[in-house]
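JOB MANIFEST
job_type = single_chain_structure
chain_count = 1
residues = 708
[input]
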Amino acid sequence: MKNYKENYESFKKSAEELVAKMTVEEAASQLKYDSPAIERLGVPAYNWWNEALHGVARAGTATMFPQAIALAAMFDEDAIAEIGEIIAEEGRAKYNAQSKFGDRDIYKGLTFWSPNVNIFRDPRWGRGHETYGEDPYLTSRLGVAFVKALQGSGQYMKSAACAKHFAVHSGPESERHFFNAIASKRDLWDTYLPAFEACVTEADVESVMGAYNRTNDEPCCASKLLMRDILDKQWGFKGYYVSDCWAIRDFHTQHNVTATAPESAALALKTGCHLNCGNTYLHMMQAYNEGLVTEDDIRNAAVVLFTTRYKLGLFDENCEYNSIPYTANDTAENNEVSYKTSRNSIVLLKNNGILPLKNDSVKTIGVIGPNANNIGALIGNYFGTASNYVTNLGGIKEAAGGIRVLYSEGSHLFEDRLSNLATAGDRYAEAKAVAAEADVVILSLGLDASIEGEQGDTGNSFVGGDKVDLDFPACQKMLYDAVISMGKPVILVVNTGSAMNLKDADEKCAAVIMAWYSGPFGGRALADVIFGKSSPCAKLPLTFYESADDLPDFKDYSMENRTYRYFKGTPLYPFGFGLSFTEFEYKNLELCKTQIKAGEDLALKVTVKNAGGIDSDEIVQIYIKDMESGEILPNFSLCGFKRVNLKAGEEKTVEFTVKAASFNVVNSEGERYTEKGLFTLYAGGSQPDGRSKELMKKAPVSAVVEVI
């Protein structure tokens, strides 16, 4: 039996035949996200706007997972694929049940506008936690795994993924509707496009969503360069292109590239934007009557959209997925995967030996902080409804056994007081009282999506949905100082979706844990690490700088001095860094060849040993350094990673294939080529940079290959 990719021509033919039966007005009505029914043709209503960033979102109860940035910290393609498969299965279960009862509303469909494969180039960007981090290679591999899993390999597509936001999009949120992101050809092809390219050319992603902003003067939902020249001609994209929501309206109200709504609708459609998330395509018939678009323009876009619906089997009552029952949603097995994911995404940034806590040496634990019992710290944004939540406080209480747990909220998340009639700092004294009684303090600070997120979704923020700097809100900094002043050992737990300024904590806290927006079972997973039920194994998918002062202007889209590949300074915690409760030793990095030809893959293997006394996963990372092109790419680049499980004392040989593309560099014209000469390859549990060596107290092993 052919799979849905092999059946493409058949689906397209069916779509052409159906659209041919429509009037022009009917075809035009289908180009909006909330497509109405055409009853005379047996076409039901369909809403294209659905979300599934880390679980089926905004559509009621489903299995939820940690936020995307936390998923990236696992450095695990197989885990991402498992999550994608669960989301697709639950998406079908919910769609089948809800459509059966006539509910075809927003968020109830199968066209999921995920993943977000933008590059998290600056930690101040509020939506960065929706992404897989700052590295194009990591983002590409995880994006491809997620897309393939969502779409499946059956006779029909199980659900339709969408790579967003195309392209060169990462803030500022407050200016996104009129901002013009200027990117060099080198940065475009070296950093901003690779993940989209991989999703299209490797995973056949069904949809691409355009960004709000302009890129190099063209609005992204009507960009000849991005949409026609690159996406269609170079990459051979066959799916549907959708605007970000109300982005086409920005053409005439913000970007001023058109004068009227019909002109904006026409510009978007003729450039290749098939579907309008928003309402500007309500003016499509006026654009048609004014001669701005042709009947063929309208019908061709409708054919693309109905091809997707046929791919999904929405017109076949015998579709293989129609029998998935609602009870396949939010199962115990799926929730167990969520719990495991939360545990595997926790990054240990510092440990002076206090962790894991020993129950026999601790009588009283103080849990303090605004994120200790905050469900918002678990869910991030673009979330669904979990059927159970375990906060940090809840997880610690579950695991504490006979240990006394004292709790103080300590402060508001961002306001200067918790009670309106109180004076500022109304919980600091209570926090000190808790710390005074405790043998150890677990201080739970951070943000949530109300102050770190999308512009339109934030209830309170400093600048749109972005952070002004990398510091915690003032009330939390004062709480931190109050707790530290008590002289007790402090384990700092950070729930945010981005890098924060942890310089003082690195100096004064006994341990620092990066928990991210950790999912509904995040508190239980945190307790597993704190009490030693599991060893932390995740790594940072982005650089933690000492201060925002180390970064260029937020609006500057040049990659110079940004991310680990281009940063010239010394980070606080580097990309790829994360500690464990055990020790790993690397040896015997062996290359299959010491000379390869340009365009050739390279096989290698390395031996890793768990030299400690605790079973643990380890993320083996491979980096490459072009010894000839330091001016183009000054630092190292990730080119391979695998998660391996090692029992205490166990040794394994791990094999990799470094793809030929990893030996490419991009010149100032955006052209990729392989420069002949020497490349150094590194294998270890971190980058080979100086700061990682200092923190890990070891260096990766290395070997040299020559490209001839």
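[summary]
Residues 458-463 have pLDDT under 50 and may be disordered.
Residues 143 and 280 are 30 Å apart (CA to CA).
exit_status = 0
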